[in-house]
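#lab-general

N.A. 3:47 PM
ok so I finally got the sequence cleaned up, no stray characters, all 366 residues accounted for. can someone with queue access submit it? mine expired

B.Y. 3:52 PM
send it over

N.A. 3:53 PM
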Amino acid sequence: MGSKVHVCAAYLVLLFAFTSGAQPNTFDVTKYGAKEGSDITKALLSAWKGACGAAGSGKVVIPKGKYSLGVVDLLGPCKGAMHLQVEGTLVAPAKASQHRKNSWVTLRYLDRLTVFGGGAFDGQGEIAWQRESCGGGCKKALPVLRFLCVTVLSKLYQNLRFDFVTNSIVEDVTSIDSKQFHVNLLGSKNLTFQRFSVKAPGHSPNTDGIHIGRSEEINIIDSNIMTGDDCISIGRGSRQVQITNVRCGHGHGISIGSLGKYEKEEPVSGIYVKNCTIYDTDNGVRIKTWPALHGGSVSNIQFEDIVMQNVSNPIIIDQMYCPHNECNRKVTFQFLFFHNKKENLYIWVCYNYAKILRLFADAIKS
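B.Y. 4:20 PM
back already:
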């Protein structure tokens, strides 16, 4: 209860910080030459530079309409809080080979950032997904990755990256058809996604909705994620993640991991998933770990009141996520709590590819 109050209080303080004080200095991309239907890469970078360097807070506005956008890095630190108001639809380059980076729009080294406006980031991933079948001259696939091949993986990019972003909010925007992950977080703290949407078909491979890595105090609330892979994936070094009232569809559900593959991995702890609906997915909630040499830990994990509709494997704890089946389990689990007031829970624990234990947990009555 104390942790929930803490998260709520932190969000209210953050919301107050963004809604109080002087109005931000506004930098409209149309003032820098942006026109509907055109490439606004240069205009956006110029507007961002002006807003970031302005005394007090700055706001970059992308009006309603459809615009092409190349690969951009929106970097800080800035002199004050930053607001990115996306009202229109930004469209990525269709061909992944047009750049060498693994992310399309990167926001990095920013504090007190707000991304909002009702607009969308359209990654145009369909062409890239077709190539991921390893046809058309693609070289031999990596055995560890079920869908991707080596030559394509290096060229695919994520729609949005948040690197070292703190005390920030992303709300009322949509990520569409990313070529790879829709959102990737690294080294971020106190970052909230609210009324955030992800839209991609069920056949889109490796398109996690939101991937969290080495970040803490991440809140995902009142959001709708439809994609072909994990709706939310939680990687090593993630702590205090709150996922509440999220609808998750088509892909692989909500996953912790994979973990335990690398040496000296930071532990995962304090993951709370509550009042979510998972539908038409292969899996519901899942924890997957490599039975590697180095080990790790997962602790204080709570899944509560999860509604599952047409889900093949509602709960999976897989400690043998190993392609060659020649490993020993090294990741330990502590304090895993599955609670549903209405339904029985089905827990799948996979120890190797030939043996699966199915455990039944009685419903916990309130």
